[in-house]
Structures are given as C-alpha cells and as structure tokens.
Amino acid sequence: xxxxxxxxxxxxxxxxxxxxxxxxxxxxxxxxxxxxxxxxxxxxxxxxxxxxxxxxxxxxxxxxxxxxxxxxxxxxxxxxxxxxxxxxxxxxxxxxxxxxxxxxxxxxxxxxxxxx
Length: 116
Hints:
There is one protein chain. The protein is an alpha/beta fold. It has helices at residues 12-21, 66-75; strands spanning 5-9, 26-31, 34-39, 42-48, 58-62, 85-87, 92-98, 104-109.
C-alpha cells in the first residue's frame, strides 16, 4: 500500500519550488490545480484552494546519520526554527523548520547514538 498526504495551498508555485529546490523533492504527478511531489517513499500533494492553506501536522524527513541532519540544518538556516538536538523521549536527533506557508518541518535521524 502507498499513500499521499494532500495539503491545500494558497501559493502552489512557491511551495512546490521550495520543496523541489530546497528539500530535494521531485514532481511525481502534475494535475490541474494539484502537484504531487515525491522524495523516496514520501509523497505530498499541494492543491490550489481559496482561503487559508492547510498547515496542521508535521512533515518529517528522516536521514541515516546525525551528520546528514546537521548538513540539512546548515543548508536550511533561513527556515530552521531551532538547532539540532537529541530527543531522548523518542531516541532521535532532530531540528524543526517551516515551509513558505508555515507548515512545520522536522528533520531527524533515529540513530542519534551511532557514530557518523
């Protein structure tokens, strides 16, 4: 089984460009009024809508190492909302950011205790 998470967007072009250029997503399917992006096994759909965009929830991208998370943090300094840290409750290493419409982004690795 596969799935796609869809979000209403007020500025699809800007949001899609951000996910493609800054986060490495590629266009999986272009439809009238919707763009579906893919990054490995994650698919996100952004669809034109009047009114406020959907910003609830967290889009989480995970990586194999702490070094990869740190590299993402350095590349996303302008959209990051904190610095990488260990989260003992979930046994992860993470930081957060925001996309152009204010959706919360999380960047993490589950293997925070392994050496890079």
